Amino acid sequence: MNIEVKLLLAQDRYKKIIDLLERNHSVKVSDLTQLFGVSIETVRRDLEYLEAEGCLKRVYGGAVLEKINIKAPVLNIRKYENIEEKQEIANIAMRYITNGQSIALNEGTTTFEIARAIKNNFQKLTIVTNSISIAAELSDMNKFTVILCGGIYKSDEFCLVGDLAQDNISKFHIDTTFIGVSGISLEAGFTDYRFDEIQIQKRMIESSNKAILITTSNKFEKSALMKVCDLDKAEIVITDSKLEPCLLDKYKKHGVTIVNK
Q1: Whole domain around residue 86: which residue ranges?
Q2: Where would I find the HTH deoR-type domain in this sequence (predicted)?
């Protein structure tokens, strides 16, 4: 069995483990070895990897979820939530884009607002995205170069994911990436809900000269299911003006640059 096949099988196990945790809130090593037909050592390595990614907490004999939100509202619901805050974030983001740049936008309702905002502020940009909604929004901008990364279509989120999407993103050298996340905390860093989307977020960050993380103020001090990256991976964090001053000071004292007005 070659390395690529082994990696693919590991990714399948990761997804199944996460599915089981979402349903049962715990998993046993013994059950996983029987389910996957692999050794105890393989399952332990899987759990170690997922713990390092912020997906779970290992305990004796297995793993559990701990103090995390495991469900993301579907896209059609999320797009109507905190719309004013998302538009405020989008307007702030315009300061960090210049005409002619390349930018990346991952799938999300706040990044969608950035896509809407750039139409009114720039004439020429290259946009790399895995979001079909963003690509459609920008389709009438003749001087924009819009690059869809390709991959597996996820109908519930109107986006593209998977190994092909990740590999294609890695081929680009992006000036600035804007990544929307579902949670930010000093302990967990930046977190999100969806395994496939998180791999896209990571590749976009790795392929960019500057990574800007964006999230509404109600996501501070909250952790979603999986870790995207540590706080120091973001050059700045953009949020809305409703962020409590005590939280703003708290994060700044830990070296996190936050812009919210």
Answers
A1: 75-259
A2: 10-65
